[in-house]
Amino acid sequence: MKPLTLALAKGRILEDTLPLLERIGVRPQQDLTRTRELRIAAEGPVGALLIVRSSDVPTYVEHGAAQLGIAGKDVLREHGSGTLYEPLDLNIARCRLCVAAPVGWQPPQRRRWRIATKYVQQARDYFAERGQQVEIIKLYGSMELAPLVGLADAIVDLVDTGNTLKANGLEPIAEINSISSRLIVNKAAMKLQAVAIREFTAALEAQLAR
Ligand code: AMP
User: Residue 22's CB: how many other CB atoms inside 10 A?
Assistant: First the structure.
């Protein structure tokens, strides 16, 4: 049977996930925080790790390039998760998806609010549910800058400690969702490699319960 491949993103998720993977016996053959290689062989319950951009993790898993992945709920909501199984909340890389605006911001009355975000779908849904007319400005990062330079009125972004918002004169004005990382599984692999995937999921679950 083909060994399992796990797709992961660098950054917070990798930092929080590596100790957990170690405890269930996943042994990458290289130091993931240093190597420039993007596919790293491993010993233990998975045979390889793929290091990809966080927003690409669901795509690799959906198409079966990896049977397993770990992705934030923010990324999964944006991707649309009907094409994947999501069997386990790992409760790591926890944060909140928030609307944030300059401290003391007065919402414009006579025009649409301009919202900068990379979470276009979730921002659109959130404001549509409230009947608030907005113009979404798609950015790929550093959203906190947009209100400072007049590109947007407010932003939709992930907030953990709130320090990044504070450093840029912003504050959260609404919480859209709470976020944590999830294990995701390719649908076909869930049938074809059911035993290995169930064992992997159970091992992770047992670690989380400790
Ligand atoms: P903080 O200053 O602790 O509130 O962190 C906010 C910054 O970190 C923002 O730029 C967020 O996009 C990013 N961030 C916070 N939590 C996460 C997470 N769980 N995954 C990815 N990025 C995050």
Answer: 13
